[in-house]
Amino acid sequence: MVNTLGLIGLIILVVHFAVPLSYYIYAKLTWYNKRWSLRIREDYKPKVSIIIPTFNEANIIEQRLDNIYSQDYPRSLVEVVIVDSASTDGTPERVADWARRHGDLRVKIIAESERRGKAHALNNALGYVEGEVVVLADADAFWDRKALSKAVKWLSSPDVGAVSCVKIPLKKGLLEVEKGYRDFYNILRIAESKAYSTPIFHGELAAFKTELLRSLGGFPVDIGADDSHMATLIALNGYRAIIPEDIITYETIPSKGYFKWRVRRAQHLIQHFTRTLKHWRRNSLFKNILITEIYLHVFNPWLLPLSTALLLASAVISGDIIPLILIAIGLALLLYKPYRTWIITQLILITAMIRNIVTKELVWEKHTK
Ligand code: GDD
Ligand code: MN
């Protein structure tokens, strides 16, 4: 017979899997297929400022600028603001050279003399932008040709304060794990957006109404996930922060140090969610989504080692074999890809929370892609 310890372990294990799965199924069935009830103005064509923060992006920045250059949005309405934090590989020089060859696109270069992190650089750039809309664009991501015009289209609704993208990982590195993770999360992001807003944004393309960004004081400099936090503040202030299904971006995956990269990103998300805890009461529509995501990122991962420890302890104390069989099944299931992806993600989140105690990693190492 399974003893009490084992039973508690089993219950915790079931909770660990049942909560996210139920949320996913609920979001998919009730929210994902909903219609967007937003008033869109197709004729909305504001001035747009694209901010690209860079640190040592010389080998990719020209491709990135080419990609922005080929967007289907009127070029005369676009300005690109590159904010570089003391790159040592000649990134700003490459940009200046590119700009000379493409006189019909306005490019501003802000060269910081010291690297103080991405959010700091973004706030610096905010002082120079002229657009009604600000779009953040990581240097190592690529946009679908229509991404910018689609982002602007969604922002034409007076209810929408910010929009981000669906991310597709590019073939390199640990694509299999990354893809499994993305498929699951992209659906959740869209579903939450249709319900009201999503608390997770992507710096690969994150577009904001400039006025709103400024009125909220710019990007928080003590949180890694500047984009997600800003989006959440916007949602808490009564505007929608959404990821629609038609804004597509492609992101390069590091060929080396994939897990380190994932842990750092997870650290930043955790920083964002823990900071958000004190705000959640302010908007009831958004409250449930936010609480669930905080639970899924901050609390639920711990149930996995906790239940395993309880099952092990019960096996040791009672000599019972059932808990051991359960653990063996858990290990055998690692052969099944979605399950493996899930477990890896949980381990990454746990490592990130522990690592956050030591360093917030607000200035991070560059990964080779
Ligand atoms: N100006 C400036 N200063 N830019 C920086 C700095 C800095 O100190 N550090 C990084 N960047 C730039 C990079 O050059 C790149 O364009 C962008 O910020 C994102 O950095 P990556 O090194 O590509 O990191 P990532 O792909 O993991 O970033 C993702 O996670 C971050 C949070 O962990 C993206 O979603 C980011 O937008 C997000 O901030
Ligand atoms: Mn990147």
Explain the overall architecture.
The structure is a single chain. Helix 6 (175-195) crosses helix 12, helix 9 (258-276) packs across helix 12 and helix 10 crosses helix 12. The model has no long low-confidence stretch (mean pLDDT 93). The termini are far apart. The longest helix has 35 residues, at 284-318. By secondary structure, this protein is α/β, with parallel strands linked by helices. Strand 1, helix 2 and strand 2 form a beta-alpha-beta unit. The strands form two sheets. Strands 3-2-1-4-8-6-9 form a seven-stranded mixed β-sheet, with helices on both faces. It has helices at 4-32, 61-69, 91-101, 118-126, 147-155, 175-195, 210-215, 226-236, 258-276, 284-318, 322-332, 337-358, and strands spanning 48-54, 78-85, 106-112, 133-136, 141-143, 160-164, 166-169, 206-209, 240-242, 248-251. It is built from twelve helices and ten strands. Helices cover 52% and strands 13% of the residues. The protein is globular and about 75 Å long. Bound molecules: guanosine-5'-diphosphate-alpha-D-mannose and manganese (II) ion. Guanosine-5'-diphosphate-alpha-D-mannose binds at residues 53-55, 57, 83-85, 115, 117-118, 121, 138-140, 202-204, 224-227, 261, 264-265, 268, 363, 366.
